[in-house]
Design goal:
single chain; alpha/beta; seven-stranded mixed sheet; 11 helices; globular; hydrolase activity, acting on carbon-nitrogen (but not peptide) bonds, in linear amides; AB_hydrolase_sf; Putative carbamate hydrolase RutD; AB_hydrolase_fold
Length: 258
């Protein structure tokens, strides 16, 4: 699995692990790296079956598989404790880690995540699967942008977005792998386990998220014993990109408490 270790080299520095959403790419976190690498050892990685981590994923691929892959990576890097920042799918990975290996988590940050399937989100996934089956990769990426970003951000950043989509087209994941990852997201459900998670948790949600209703984050905040929530008015699903300064400020304030 492809990974990079960036930032502070002091062995006593805290480690921050960044885990992406459905796309699985380390590149997603570029807007956060300048702020984080000044103070922390930062681990980014391309999730298995995406980007620079080619693989054929098993038919029963799950969030549990993804958490095991990240834990194996961290064990290989001799990381004893870390903060995990997860966006959407990455947040689900963090919660599964908190259930399986709570000792390795100093804290977790869940950005537009959820604890069980939601009818609205499932419909969005069904549309994406239909586009994969019937349309081009270019159309899939255009639909993805509509899900990730607010309309005004797309209008103001269209040149950057077109350039990014050209890059994503070159590294577009294997269709079968992508469908297996969507299936893993669609079936993730830890409602009967969520109260067992004792990890200190920061939840970030967006009122204008088109993919994951912010109430899913509120549900997480109500269920998790040691959580706090920051609800943003603007940013869409990918507020790490569209509201970078706001998200980075919230993230750094959380991490600097340790």
């Amino acid at each position: 699995m492809y990974f990079e270790v960036l930032g502070v080299t002091d062995p006593n520095a805290h480690t921050v692990v960044l885990s992406s959403g459905l796309g699985g790419s380390a590149h997603f976190w570029k807007p956060q790296l300048e702020a984080l690498t000044k103070q922390y050892r930062v681990v980014v990685y391309d999730q298995l079956g995406t980007g620079r981590s080619p693989a054929t994923l098993p038919m029963d691929y799950s969030i549990e598989h993804m958490s095991d892959e990240l834990l194996e990576l961290l064990d290989g890097l001799d990381v004893k404790q870390c903060h995990v920042v997860g966006h959407a799918l990455g947040g689900l990975v963090a919660m599964k880690m908190a259930l399986r290996r709570p000792d390795i988590l100093k804290s977790m940050v869940l950005i537009n995540a959820w604890s069980s399937p939601n009818p609205h989100t499932l419909r969005c996934f069904n549309i994406r699967k239909a586009i994969l089956d019937t349309c081009s990769k270019e159309i899939f990426l255009q639909m993805q942008a509509l899900i990730l970003y607010p309309p005004d951000w797309i209008a103001d950043n269209i040149a950057t977005l077109v350039e990014e989509e050209a890059h994503l087209l070159k590294v577009f994941p294997d269709k079968d792998n992508l469908l297996k990852r969507i299936a893993a997201l669609s079936t993730f459900d830890i409602e009967n386990q969520i109260k067992q998670i004792q990890t200190d948790t920061l939840i970030i949600a967006n009122k204008d998220d088109l993919l994951v209703p912010w109430q899913q984050s509120k549900q997480l905040d109500d269920a998790l014993p040691n959580s706090k929530m920051s609800l943003l008015d603007y940013g869409g699903h990918a507020s790490t990109v569209t509201a970078t300064q706001t998200v980075n400020t919230i993230l750094m304030e959380h991490l600097n408490c340790y």
